[in-house]
């Protein structure tokens, strides 16, 4: 049984990791490190775990751990690894943006299992993709795989309040978020860089724009993404392309009926629907930003790294009503 640790244990993604790893049959959760909650019961922060675990947040790190998950704020993972030692055999899964760009001279593999499965199996260090990046990349990746991204891609995606993390800000208070809807970071969201990177890995000549409008929804979790671009083929050809591309994907499914968030929230699934309108292909993708867009994908990556079944510990049930 492998030993796992979590760094930055008080946030939303860490909470999801604890819930998954606590029940993972191939793993023991060795420590949960938090500088802000040292010595406190984990249930003080993650209150739904009351009666499930007696673990406390630790102020110390086990450097001989088999795998460590970094659930730190963006920019903090690099600093943490510079200041803390792990053994040469410790595998690392980083959930921040710090190591997602491959041209920055590090040894992290971009951990999108649908496109990097074989590399992930051999990797020691994984940069877990962002939540918007996962939803958008999965929506258009099959087109790039066949060099079919010929024009600009227009993307509109809505995320729940948990996408902003636990730190309070003007736009995360209930009184602001409830019964409200807003766009932010239009055309310049930080996830665009990694999405473009994934497209160019499959279609190096891709030079069109990804016109991305992110939105804040008045719900807690989930991402609903619509993307459209020119496509000369038929709907049937697009469906065949997508179903073939995701044929062996453990959690990504191409469906023909309407998709919505209640199908995927509290699961590690991404559902994709295709529609054709004239010369436009409309792709809709939905996923849970904290699971498929973060912690669930991190565990999927860990399963691949250690030779477990891809879905071990990840067959979660949606709360449909």
Automatic annotation (TrEMBL):
Against CDD domains, the record matches this protein to: AGPR_1_C (cd23934), AGPR_1_N (cd17895)
In the UniProt record, does the keyword Repeat occur?
A: no
- Record-given protein name: N-acetyl-gamma-glutamyl-phosphate reductase
Looking up Pfam families in the UniProt record yields: Semialdhyde_dh (PF01118), Semialdhyde_dhC_1 (PF22698)
Pathway(s) where this gene product acts: Amino-acid biosynthesis; L-arginine biosynthesis; N(2)-acetyl-L-ornithine from L-glutamate: step 3/4
Main enzyme class: oxidoreductase
Q: What is its EC number?
A: 1.2.1.38
Which UniProt keywords are listed?
A: Amino-acid biosynthesis, Arginine biosynthesis, Cytoplasm, NADP, Oxidoreductase
UniProt lists the gene as: argC
- Ranges of residues in domain Semialdehyde dehydrogenase NAD-binding: 3-123
Report the active site residues.
131
- Role summary: Catalyzes the NADPH-dependent reduction of N-acetyl-5-glutamyl phosphate to yield N-acetyl-L-glutamate 5-semialdehyde.
**Location within or outside the cell:** Cytoplasm
User: Which GO BP terms apply?
Assistant: L-arginine biosynthetic process
The answer to whether the entry has keyword Cytoplasm is: yes
> Main localization of the protein?
cytoplasm
């Amino acid at each position: 049984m492998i030993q796992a640790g979590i760094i930055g244990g008080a946030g939303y993604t860490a909470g999801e990791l604890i819930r998954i790893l606590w029940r993972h049959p191939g793993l023991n959760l060795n420590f949960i490190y938090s500088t802000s909650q040292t010595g406190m019961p984990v249930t003080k922060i993650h209150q739904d775990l009351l009666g499930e675990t007696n673990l406390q947040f630790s102020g110390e790190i086990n450097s001989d751990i088999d795998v460590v998950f970094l659930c730190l704020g963006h920019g903090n993972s690099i600093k943490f690894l510079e200041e803390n030692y792990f053994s040469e055999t410790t595998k690392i899964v980083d959930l921040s943006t710090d190591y997602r760009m491959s041209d920055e001279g590090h040894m992290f593999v971009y951990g999108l299992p649908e496109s990097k499965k074989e590399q992930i199996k051999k990797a020691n260090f994984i940069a877990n993709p962002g939540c918007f990046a996962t939803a958008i990349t999965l929506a258009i990746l099959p087109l790039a795989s066949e060099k079919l991204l010929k024009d600009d891609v227009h993307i509109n995606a809505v995320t729940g309040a948990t996408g902003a993390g636990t730190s309070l800000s003007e736009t995360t208070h209930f009184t602001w978020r409830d019964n409200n809807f807003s766009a932010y970071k239009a055309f310049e969201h930080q996830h665009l860089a990694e999405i473009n990177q994934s497209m160019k890995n499959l279609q190096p000549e891709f030079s069109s724009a990804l016109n991305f409008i992110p939105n804040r929804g008045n719900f807690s979790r989930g991402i609903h993404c619509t993307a459209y671009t020119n496509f000369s083929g038929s709907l049937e050809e697009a469906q065949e392309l997508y179903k073939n591309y995701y044929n062996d994907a453990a959690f990504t499914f191409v469906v023909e009926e309407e998709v919505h968030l209640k199908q995927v929230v509290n699961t590690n699934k991404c559902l994709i629907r295709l529609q054709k309108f004239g010369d436009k292909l409309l792709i809709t993708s939905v996923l849970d930003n904290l699971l498929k867009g973060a912690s669930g994908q991190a565990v999927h990556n860990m399963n691949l790294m250690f030779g477990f079944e891809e879905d071990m510990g990840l067959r979660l049930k949606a709360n449909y009503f």
